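In the previous chapter we treated chains in isolation. Here, by contrast, the input contains two separate entities that must be folded as one system, with a combined length of 574 residues.
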Amino acid sequence: MDRSQIWKFNNNVDTDQIIPSQYLLLPTIDEMKAFAFEPILPDFAKVVKSGDIIIAGENFGCGSSREQAPRILKELGIRAVIAMSFSRIFFRNAINIGLPAIICKEAYNAAHHGDQAELDLSKGSLKIENNILSCTKLSPIMQRILDHGGLVSFLNEEVL
Amino acid sequence: MGMTISEKIIAAAANIDHAKAGDIHTVSIDRMMSNDGTTHLTIDMYNSMLKNPAIADKSKLVFIIDHNMPADSPKTAAAHKKIRDFAKTHEIAFYEGKGVCHQIMMEEYVRSGELIFGADSHTCTYGALGAFGTGVGNTDFLYAMVTGRSWVLVPETLLFHLSGSFREGVYPRDLILTIIGDIGAGGASYKTMEFTGSGAHAMSIGHRMALTNMAVEAGAKTGIFEPDEKAVEYLSAHGRQAKHLFKSDKNARYEKEYFYDLGKIEPVVARPDNIDDVVNVESVKDVKIDQAFIGSCNSGRIEDLRIAAEILKGQRIADHVRLLISPASNSVYQKALEEGLMGIFIDAGAMVVNSNCSVCWGSCQGVIGEGEVLISTGTRNFKGRAGHKESKVYLGSAATVAASAMAGKIVRAV
């Protein structure tokens, strides 16, 4: 199984930290991604590697409805965001764009910044060191959207 | 079991008799609003990613440019042009330079009992008229625009009983900050915050908007008031009628109930960088400020401008302070002109700027620099929200902001 490096964040990481307002009207997500976490981790976009995961505390993604927030994380190769809880708009946006957003109450305390983890998305399990943690399942509708790779594919394949 | 207002609106939108918290339903969306924060991305997706792009019902759509209005760079101008051209081609109602999207929606479109999606988190504002407004991202918006439908999880409801009346110098803005301080930034996650009681019914629609607008800052899906005579009067004055005048049933189920005596609320501020770090103004008095802002979808209405004008009349702001005032819409601007408030602001040394998201958005105008401190009636005080990442934002009422602009430091108005 692929191993992922952990980026650990605290409670209430808001969307202004993930992508500040002044970059939202740039023409493309590709141009925006360089500014991921600029206020708190300015080098993030330079050093993050494809396949890395984010583990956070409560209320990740609170604040604005800007979908640019999950989209730049996906564009940078983040494989999943795992948090104790999510703000509802971020949670819905992440699934809608095909970025797994996973609720796992125990991950935050088990994780250390820079640790390696093994995430099994199909089983919904996360292994950090020798701890195997189980994650909360998505609702059936959200799982279906994620299985399609996001809401646009769901729309094209099941509705239009 | 009875139903809450939220459950009734969702049941009506799902065309079923009964909905309860925890259910997931497919619903028809009554209205959809998108602004320049994300519409350029929605348009790109519509044009390049859909198999058969078509809009289900263009009469339900409203596009509003308010965040970076007027444009601040060629790239912003290009994004705006894309939105403007798309709206024209597809005959979508379009506004630019007329005000903050939620104020325009309240003045022109929102009807009690509607289910409204907005590609902006503060869409929860519409509950001031007893509508269920909720913020979505632009992919959800795209789906709703193309199909006319979406899915919703019926939220639990927290009921806030408001009794008594505010003391002099205390406003609904202080109340909602106090509530968020009490329940926390995630205290209403996924839920409806419903406001009831004599204190709720006594508030103007504008003041109700100050409460419902901030519901999302406690994580709520929406904030809502029962539509009463004031809501009906507001709709009538704006040439509209309610879709439904839903009230929560006596035996509706609430997850939790809270009781607030308005007479006990104090003037408060939310300290940087967390919305739920709320303290009495007294405890941060003498914090020196560089800039003050009155405006935004939270507190840029005529009620707020009157409060500020009363304090600033015949006074001058402190020498080292910039005070920016942005009325929430051009109709608010016009009213303030008619009432002579603008002259008071200019005489006091304020800059009156156009109706837009302005300083609250931290990107368009009035951006603050490294180490600077802002006191604001805006919606958020996140790190870097108003400009440089090492700047600070305090949130308070229009009265606290006006008084602080005069003093050059944070002070109580009364």
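Chain B touches chain A through 52 residues (CB under 8 Å). The radius of gyration of chain B is 20 Å. Compare these points with the single-chain example from earlier in the chapter.
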